[in-house]
């Protein structure tokens, strides 16, 4: 499954990774309490924006560079911008999931995100972890990199943010990344059976050790 082929895989992720998507939002949103001006950077077709509004009762604005995806997001009732340059306000929270790894100049984007935030604003980044896991699947998904924890902290700090926390997520996903094929049935099985156990192990002790992803929380 290649996300460059169209929207079928994005819909498959939305429809078959419901627990996974809800948990990503839960992990990020708990750091945004009381914040109303929220932007999702790289919103895809609005999957997480819908979940964010459901969980927090706050409707985020979205940024998405693909015109067809912008249209879907707007049809779903969200304001959507094509670039940070088009945004005319300062946000007190910006979140992004599985986006930064697609961008060659990630340092430049982090600086742009900071410029789009009010003082004291919160940034949440969810990205693929471990350079050693980089594979043909990453290349097919358009990933420029996977992140080492120290690398992500350094790049975010260098952009002017104060890093509050950075930890691993989806510990069992490290094994599933190599074993799974991206069919709707396999996504659903992972979401129903493997991810709940992975989430429990994360919370018990593994989030400080290893995981398929990293979650970073920072403030301006």
Work out the count of structural domains.
Answer: 1
Number of helical elements: 9
Structural class: alpha/beta
Calculate Rg over CA atoms.
16 Å
Total beta strand runs: 7
Largest sheet: 7 strands, mixed
- Share of β-strand residues: 15-25%
Tell me about this structure.
With 220 residues, this protein is of the alpha/beta class. It has a single domain (3-219), classed as Vaccinia Virus protein VP39 (Rossmann fold), CATH 3.40.50.150. The protein has nine helices and seven strands, in the order ααβαβαββαβααβααβ. The chain has helices at residues 8-16, 18-29, 47-56, 67-75, 106-115, 136-140, 149-158, 173-179, 184-204; strands at residues 38-41, 61-63, 80-81, 91-97, 117-128, 162-169, 213-219. A seven-stranded mixed sheet has the order 3-2-1-4-5-7-6, sandwiched between helices. α2 packs across α3 (47-56). The protein is globular, with a radius of gyration of 16 Å. The relative contact order is 0.16. Residues 1-5 have low confidence and may be disordered.
List the helices and strands and how they pair.
Blueprint: H1 8-16, H2 18-29, E1 38-41, H3 47-56, E2 61-63, H4 67-75, E3 80-81, E4 91-97, H5 106-115, E5 117-128, H6 136-140, H7 149-158, E6 162-169, H8 173-179, H9 184-204, E7 213-219
Helix pairs in contact: 1-9, 2-3
Descriptive labels:
220 residues; alpha/beta; Rossmann fold; seven-stranded mixed beta sheet; 7 strands; 20% strand; globular
Outline:
By secondary structure, the chain is an alpha/beta fold. The chain has nine helices and seven strands.
């Amino acid at each position: 499954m290649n996300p460059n082929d169209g929207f079928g895989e994005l819909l498959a992720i939305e429809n078959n990774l419901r627990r996974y998507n809800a948990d990503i939002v839960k992990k990020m949103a708990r750091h945004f309490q009381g914040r109303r001006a929220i932007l999702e950077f790289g919103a895809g077709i609005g999957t997480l924006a819908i979940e964010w509004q459901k969980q927090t009762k706050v409707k985020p604005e979205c940024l998405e560079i693909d015109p067809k995806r912008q249209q879907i997001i707007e049809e779903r009732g969200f304001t959507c911008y094509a670039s940070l340059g088009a945004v005319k306000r300062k946000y007190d929270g910006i979140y992004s999931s599985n986006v930064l790894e697609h961008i060659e100049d990630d340092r430049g984007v982090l600086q742009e995100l900071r410029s789009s935030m009010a003082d004291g604003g919160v940034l949440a980044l969810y990205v693929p972890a471990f350079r050693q896991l980089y594979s043909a699947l990453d290349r097919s998904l358009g990933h420029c990199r996977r992140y080492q924890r120290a690398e992500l902290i350094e790049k975010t700090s260098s952009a002017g943010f104060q890093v509050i926390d950075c930890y691993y997520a989806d510990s069992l996903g490290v094994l599933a990344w190599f074993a799974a094929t991206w069919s709707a049935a396999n996504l659903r099985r992972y979401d129903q059976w493997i991810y709940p156990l992975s989430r429990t192990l994360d919370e018990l002790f593994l989030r400080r050790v290893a995981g398929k992803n990293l979650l970073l929380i920072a403030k301006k």
